[in-house]
Write a structure and sequence with these properties.
eight-stranded parallel beta barrel; 13 helices; alpha/beta; TIM Barrel
């Protein structure tokens, strides 16, 4: 496969173009301070990435409300107190000529009460003893997403990525399994998607025509229906509500096992949609130069690098230098990650990822 296409510019509907087709996936490193303030370790990580050849760097999931927290030491963007650290990060990225986005996140029913989270389920049947959030509370959380996007803009980021994957609140509302509401946010697909659409439309209105909006979507687990996810994505593409779709797959090559699209790759179900000016990228076990190049041939406009970027911070530069570059085989030792520039906090997080860090390595 020819890797040269990975280094061609890519225009977006709003704001500046990407200088190539590499986007750093949003990685929740759990190395911020306990109040969500960006730490020196966050800053060091961002500075490394900014010099590593990516066209656009997404931060890890940042809480839009204090109660929406899912991880210890999760980055926050729910308070103006977070602005100094965020501004420093955005400045470091911009200095290297790279685009930037904050991933906006609320854990919904998965918020962890042990670290200050307040579960906010769509349904009263999801979390024992906790009622579904009210229509008014949905509106409040929607407005928190929009306010967080405005903070990102003030801090100097080019845009935000709205986290609509993995059963977090926007994904949760999409799921007929997790959403049995009777108000305007429940019932048919249009109603279940309303929360997401209102968040995206509100961000555009608040942040203007030059601000970039991404949307992270997953299509597996949590009761999500593939046909419905395709339908709502087609709607968002047709209205050009976002600049790019970040399709979060466990494996970018996986196929559908049953139903209407059985035997097709999950990716093809979305790359086959008319997308007008919206760009589409995928994440999921992209560990080599050749796999990245293949994804463009399969219809992606860009690729999202996650594990490979943790193993080798300058993955895009390695690909440019060697079209046959392949990532180090997992698992790796903690010392390998340490030598590569990961903080001890980040390494501790990676120990929780299955088969990433060798058991017992110091």
């Amino acid at each position: 496969m020819d890797v040269d296409n990975l280094f061609k510019p890519l225009t977006l509907l709003h704001g500046p173009a990407m200088k190539n087709r590499f986007m750093m996936a949003p990685l929740t490193s759990q190395q911020s301070e306990h109040d969500g303030t960006a730490s020196e370790f966050d800053q060091q990580w961002i500075e490394q990435l900014a010099q590593s050849g990516y066209a656009l760097i997404q931060t890890g999931a940042a809480t839009v409300e204090a109660g929406g927290i899912a991880f210890e030491r999760q980055m926050g963007i729910h308070s103006d107190d977070h602005l100094p650290g965020l501004t420093k990060m955005a400045t470091a990225i911009r200095k290297e000529g790279v685009l930037s986005a904050v991933q906006l996140h609320h854990a919904g029913h998965r918020a962890k009460s042990l670290i200050g989270g307040i579960p906010a389920p769509a349904s009263g049947n999801t979390v024992p003893g906790i009622e579904a959030i009210t229509t008014e509370e949905v509106g409040r959380i929607r407005d928190s997403f929009i306010a967080a996007a405005k903070r990102a803009q003030i801090a100097g980021f080019n845009g935000v990525s709205v986290h609509g994957a993995f059963g977090w609140i926007l994904s949760e509302f999409m799921s007929p399994h997790l959403n049995d509401r009777k108000d305007k946010y429940g019932g048919n697909l249009e109603n279940r998607a309303r929360f997401t659409i209102e968040v995206i439309e509100g961000i555009r209105q608040a942040c203007g025509p030059d601000f970039q909006i991404g949307w992270r979507l997953s299509i597996e687990r949590y009761g999500l229906r593939l046909e419905e996810m395709r339908e709502i994505t087609a709607h968002i593409f047709d209205r050009e509500l976002i600049d790019y779709l970040d399709l979060a797959l466990w494996d970018s090559a996986q196929t559908v096992r049953e139903g209407t699209y059985q035997g097709k790759t999950m990716l093809s179900i979305f790359t086959g949609l008319p997308r007008k000016g919206v760009r589409l990228g995928a994440a999921g076990k992209i560990m080599s130069a050749q796999r990245a190049a293949t994804l463009l041939e399969e219809g992606c406009d860009f690729v999202l690098i996650a594990r490979a970027g943790i193993l080798q911070r300058d993955f895009p530069l390695k690909v440019k230098a060697n079209p046959m570059f392949d990532s180090t085989t997992l698992p790796v030792t903690a010392e390998y990650l340490r030598r590569g520039g990961l903080s001890e906090r980040f390494i501790h997080t990676m120990r929780g990822w299955q088969t990433f860090v060798k058991a017992g390595s110091l």
